[in-house]
Please model this.
Amino acid sequence: MNNTFGELVMMLFHSRTNAHLLHLQTNSYAMHKALEGYYDGVIDLVDSLVETYQGIYGIYTEYPAAFRLEADPIAMLTTIRNWIVANRQKVSPESNIQNSIDEIQSLIDSTLYKLRELS
Model:
């Protein structure tokens, strides 16, 4: 089993939950909308990534269970972005999987822009 793949999927699923909680707690309309865009978009992208991965490698079942609530959405997304940059080739060398990761990274980068510059 590829533990790096499982880490990525769970990190992204957890980021969706964190983003939704932070979306509900913010006083900033811009942050509210930026986080809504992220949590609405990330699940479909992760679902596509997992289905593509499983189409190549078979059903994946070894997901880590740890969850940690993040208080700062910029720090959370920056951490995920840096992790992706450092580990994406360990997930899979397949170009279609790398394309799915690119789409996820684009959503993260767009959300970071909105959080940093528009909030």
The two ends are 40 Å apart (CA to CA).
